[in-house]
Specification:
By secondary structure, this protein is an alpha+beta fold. Helix content is about 50%, strand content about 20%. The protein folds into 3 domains: about 60 residues, OB fold (Dihydrolipoamide Acetyltransferase, E2P) (Beta Barrel); about 70 residues, 5' to 3' exonuclease, C-terminal subdomain (DNA polymerase, domain 1), CATH 1.10.150.20; about 50 residues, Orthogonal Bundle (Helicase, Ruva Protein, domain 3). A hairpin with a 3-residue loop joins strand 1 and strand 2. Helix 4 packs across helix 6, helix 7 runs antiparallel to helix 8 and helix 7 crosses helix 9.
Length: about 190
């Protein structure tokens, strides 16, 4: 029904925003990913999903159409509600969610608070074909840097760092040096963690 809202950002919190659209203030629930993409106060456009329940009408807003589409896919899975989907998009970027589903990465999905192994398996089972078809991800393609990154992440986790924190640092290192070896990634990550 409401596909996007464009207006002046009046209030910005990590979990929700208020957008003034021609004198009407819309309260919109957002993920941390969308929060980090938003400017502090100027005109913004959020792509929205209206969730209608017996007791409430709730607007969820996303910085990109891709994030909104992933949210819609997630809430289509039995046992995954809007708040769980929002938590998942707050803990992981839309690309990380897509890749985790495409590559059967149950550990990444399970790392999200509130998602157990059965739910993680159901998310992958229900959405893998849709993700592969819609986003054209090649199931078999794993680049050497992904293998190096995964090995480095395992080593960093063994050293006691959280996966989320280590992954963020490793992604930055690989972005700057796509051909980095496992040792290089670990050494640079230890300097930045």
């Amino acid at each position: 029904m409401i596909t996007h809202i464009e207006g002046r950002l009046v209030e910005k919190n990590p979990t929700d925003v208020v957008i003034d659209c021609k004198g009407i203030g819309y309260s919109i629930h957002i993920s941390l990913h969308t929060y980090s993409e938003l400017p502090d106060s100027e005109n913004v456009r959020l792509y929205t999903h209206l969730l209608v329940r017996e007791d409430s009408h709730t607007l969820y807003g996303f910085s990109t159409m891709v994030e909104r589409e992933i949210f819609r896919l997630l809430i289509s899975v039995s046992g995954v509600g809007a708040s769980t989907a929002r938590t998942m998009l707050s803990s992981l970027s839309p690309d990380q969610v897509k890749e985790a589903i495409a590559y059967n990465d149950i550990a990444t999905i399970q790392s999200v608070k509130g998602i157990g192994s059965k739910t993680a398996q159901r998310v992958i089972l229900d959405l893998k074909d849709k993700i592969l078809k819609v986003y054209g991800i090649d199931e078999v393609s794993t680049t050497p840097s992904n293998t190096n990154k995964n090995e480095a992440l395992s080593a960093l986790e063994t050293l006691g760092f959280t996966r989320k924190q280590a992954e963020r640092v490793c992604d930055q290192i690989i972005e700057n040096d796509p051909d980095a070896t496992v040792e290089t990634i670990i050494k640079q990550a230890l300097k930045n963690l």
